[in-house]
Automatic annotation (TrEMBL):
Residues 3-128 form the ApaG domain. InterPro entries: ApaG-like, ApaG_domain, ApaG_sf. It comes from the Bacteria. PANTHER family: OS05G0170800 PROTEIN. It holds the Pfam family DUF525. SUPFAM superfamilies: ApaG-like. This is Uncharacterized protein affecting Mg2+/Co2+ transport. It comes from Winogradskyella epiphytica.
């Protein structure tokens, strides 16, 4: 598990390898990740959007941006947590992801970024 705190918001990430399959005549490697967002600040915050940078073993980069996470824009009061599961596909058995969430401090009506630490995606059979 990797963790990082930005502006009182703690991000924890756990990853898993979900398997391989063929799509468009190519082998793809499926990875899952579970993210827990914990509000350690004294203000209520809302997650508005996400930005992901996904790299595979060949340094191919994919940028993903979108509203909320898994269709939701959670509000977290002080001390609350929000956990969700998602996933990604790579064309290699290992890679990495990092990114950030655009959030709003609801008490101060100010916007800020919360960084997601870089986390590795790796199929167990690809490691020595």
């Amino acid at each position: 598990m990797v963790q990082q705190v930005t502006s009182g918001i703690k991000i924890s990430v756990e990853t898993s390898f979900e398997g391989t399959f063929y799509k468009n005549y190519k082998v793809h490697f499926a990875f899952g990740y579970k993210i827990t967002i914990e509000n350690q600040s004294k203000d209520s915050v809302q997650l508005n959007s996400r930005h992901w940078r996904i790299l595979d073993a060949l340094n191919n980069e994919e940028i993903i941006e979108g509203e909320g996470v898994i269709g939701k824009k959670p509000i977290l009061r002080p001390g609350e947590t929000y956990t969700y599961n998602s996933g990604t596909l790579l064309t290699s058995p290992f890679g990495a992801m990092n990114g950030f969430y655009n959030m709003t401090n609801l008490n101060k009506a100010s916007k800020f970024k919360v960084y997601v630490p870089s986390f590795k995606l790796s199929a167990p059979f690809a490691l020595n």
